[in-house]
C-alpha cells in the first residue's frame, strides 16, 4: 500500500488506522466474521478506495481528559468571563465537535467547537489552494499562506493540518500490534466491517515520536518522558469499512494511560498523570459535489499569532 508522505490529518488518521491494521494482519486474528474477505483483503481494498476518494462530509467528535495529581491548573480565560479555576488535582477536560467538507488537501472547510470548563470556543477554517482562512473566537476572518500557518496554532486548531506517516516505522512495530476482526457491525443503520488494532507502548511511542508535527507541538522530550513513565496503557485504533465501496465510514482512536512523572529537578515533585483520549472521525456523502467559498472580508497576515493573540488581547 502506497501512502503519501504528506497528507491531511483527516486522511492521516484514517491511513494510520489502515496501515496499523495492515501491519497487524500478520499477527494472530481474533473474532468471527461471515465475510469471504480476510481483514488484510478488506484493508487493502479500502486503502485503494480511500486513495481515490474525491470528496466527503466530515464529522469529528473528541474528548480529552487529563488529571495531574497534586497540581492546580489555571486555563486561559475566555472573553467576558472571569478566570476559571480547576479543582485541586489538576482535572481538566476538553470536548471537541466539528463538521465540514473536504475535496482533497487543497479544498476543505471545518467548523469546530472546543469546550473546556463549560466554556465553548468556536473556530472555523477554510483551505483553498495555498491559502488558509481562519475565523477566530471573536468572529474575525484572517487569511495567510499555508506555509505561514504552522506550529502550535495550526496543530491546535486545524483538523486537516499535515501529518507525516513513515510506513517503515509502522512495519517495524508489527510485533507490538494486535488485530481483532469483529466482522459485520451496525453503524448508523449500515452494516460495516469493524476491525480493531490494539497498540502497546512501543507502537504508540514510535508513531508519536516519528511524526514531526506532533513532536513540534508537544516536544520530543515531553513525549519520551510521558511514555517512558507510563505504567498503564490501553490504546487502540478502530475502523468501520463498507465492503461494497470499501470506504472508511468511521475511524476511532483511543488512548488511556497512567504515568508517574518526576519533576523534582524543575522544582516540583512526583506527579501522577492520567489521560483519557477518544477521537472519532465520521465520513459520509462520498464523492458528492462540494462548494467552498473564501470569505470576502478576511484580513491578510503572515503571523498566526495575530489570529489568536488578538483574541487574547481583546479579553
From TrEMBL:
The keyword Signal applies. The keyword Signal applies. Residues 1-24 form the signal peptide. InterPro entries: LolA/LolB/LppX. It comes from the Bacteria. Keywords: Signal. This is LppX_LprAFG lipoprotein. It comes from Tengunoibacter tsumagoiensis.
Amino acid at each position: 500500500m502506497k501512502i503519501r508522505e504528506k497528507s491531511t490529518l483527516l486522511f492521516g488518521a484514517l491511513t494510520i488506522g489502515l496501515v496499523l491494521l495492515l501491519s497487524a494482519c500478520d499477527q494472530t486474528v481474533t473474532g468471527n466474521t461471515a465475510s469471504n474477505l480476510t481483514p488484510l483483503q478488506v484493508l487493502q481494498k479500502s486503502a485503494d478506495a480511500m486513495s481515490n476518494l474525491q470528496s466527503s462530509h466530515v464529522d469529528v467528535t473528541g474528548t480529552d481528559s487529563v488529571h495531574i495529581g497534586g497540581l492546580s491548573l489555571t486555563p486561559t480565560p475566555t472573553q467576558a468571563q472571569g478566570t476559571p479555576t480547576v479543582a485541586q488535582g489538576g482535572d481538566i477536560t476538553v470536548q471537541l465537535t466539528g463538521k465540514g467538507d473536504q475535496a482533497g488537501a487543497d479544498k476543505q472547510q471545518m467548523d469546530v467547537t472546543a469546550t473546556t470548563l463549560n466554556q465553548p470556543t468556536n473556530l472555523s477554517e477554510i483551505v483553498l489552494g495555498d491559502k488558509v482562512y481562519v475565523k477566530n473566537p471573536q468572529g474575525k476572518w484572517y487569511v495567510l499562506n499555508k506555509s505561514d500557518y504552522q506550529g502550535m496554532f495550526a496543530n491546535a486548531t486545524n483538523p486537516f493540518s499535515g501529518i507525516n506517516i513513515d510506513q517503515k516505522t509502522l512495519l517495524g512495530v508489527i510485533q507490538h500490534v494486535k488485530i481483532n476482526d469483529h466482522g459485520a457491525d451496525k453503524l448508523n443503520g449500515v452494516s460495516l466491517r469493524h476491525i480493531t488494532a490494539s497498540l502497546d507502548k512501543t507502537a504508540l511511542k514510535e508513531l508519536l515520536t516519528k511524526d514531526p508535527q506532533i513532536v513540534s507541538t508537544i516536544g520530543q522530550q515531553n513525549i519520551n518522558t510521558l511514555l517512558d513513565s507510563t505504567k498503564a496503557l490501553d490504546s487502540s485504533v478502530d475502523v468501520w469499512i463498507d465492503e461494497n465501496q470499501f470506504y472508511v465510514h468511521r475511524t476511532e482512536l483511543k488512548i488511556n494511560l497512567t504515568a508517574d512523572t518526576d519533576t523534582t529537578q524543575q522544582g516540583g515533585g512526583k506527579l501522577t498523570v492520567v489521560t483519557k483520549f477518544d477521537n472519532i472521525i465520521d465520513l459520509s456523502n462520498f464523492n458528492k459535489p462540494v462548494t467552498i467559498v473564501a470569505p470576502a472580508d478576511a484580513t491578510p497576515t503572515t503571523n498566526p499569532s495575530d489570529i489568536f493573540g488578538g483574541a487574547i488581547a481583546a479579553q
